[in-house]
Design brief:
Layout lengths: L9 E2 L9 E4 L2 H11 L3 E14 L2 E15 L6 E16 L16 H4 L1 E4 L4 E2 H12 L9 H8 L12 H11 L1
Parallel strand pairs: 5-6
Antiparallel strand pairs: 1-7, 2-3, 3-4, 4-5
């Protein structure tokens, strides 16, 4: 977890919220997260989370939605777009993560990939949502004017470019047969 904790929402595993927990962010939290992730702004960020328990872990399943503003990877002009992602996280008490031998080969299951260890009486759902948001941000996202700028500069997109070279010629010859 991050040391910055721009979005703190502590949850007590022994007293899980009944029903769906709604996470609303304020302007200061969104500004701090935008700075952390290197984007222009986060205009909105909300999440809806349901909790359950399984094998001494708390499972938090939900969806977050955000309105982001960031520079286009091609034009560098800011543009705004919406994202919405589902997530499922397992919060496990300290010392209960799977133990693996240092040199042993092992395979991670889908559940292993989203396990978050916590210490004490609470875990920080807010930081977990912030990390999920960070994973969803595409630093190379292109804005609406990207294609026009490429065309103006005479740059072909990968889709428009025709393969060339000996391998491409050999493949073309095989297609004709």
């Amino acid at each position: 977890m991050s040391d910055t904790n721009e979005l703190v929402r502590l949850v007590k595993p022994r007293a899980l919220p009944a029903g769906t927990m709604e996470v609303e962010t304020n302007e200061a939290e969104r500004a701090a997260l935008a700075k952390r992730f290197g984007i222009t702004a986060i205009h909105a960020l909300t999440a809806k989370v349901d909790f359950s328990e399984k094998d001494d872990a708390v499972v938090a399943s939900g969806t977050f939605s955000a309105t982001l503003e960031q520079p286009c990877a091609v034009t560098r002009d800011d543009f705004t777009y919406d994202i919405s992602e589902d997530f499922s996280l397992r919060f496990v008490p300290a010392g209960r993560l799977g133990e693996y031998e240092e040199d042993a080969e092992f395979e991670l299951t889908e559940e292993d990939l989203d396990e978050i260890e916590y210490e004490g009486e609470t875990f920080d759902l807010g930081e977990a949502i912030a990390q999920e948001l960070g994973l969803a941000i595409d630093p190379y996202r292109e804005g609406p004017d990207a294609d026009a700028m490429r065309e103006e500069a005479g740059i072909e997109s990968d889709e428009d470019r025709k393969p060339s070279g000996p391998l491409a010629e050999a493949l073309a010859a095989l297609k004709k047969d």
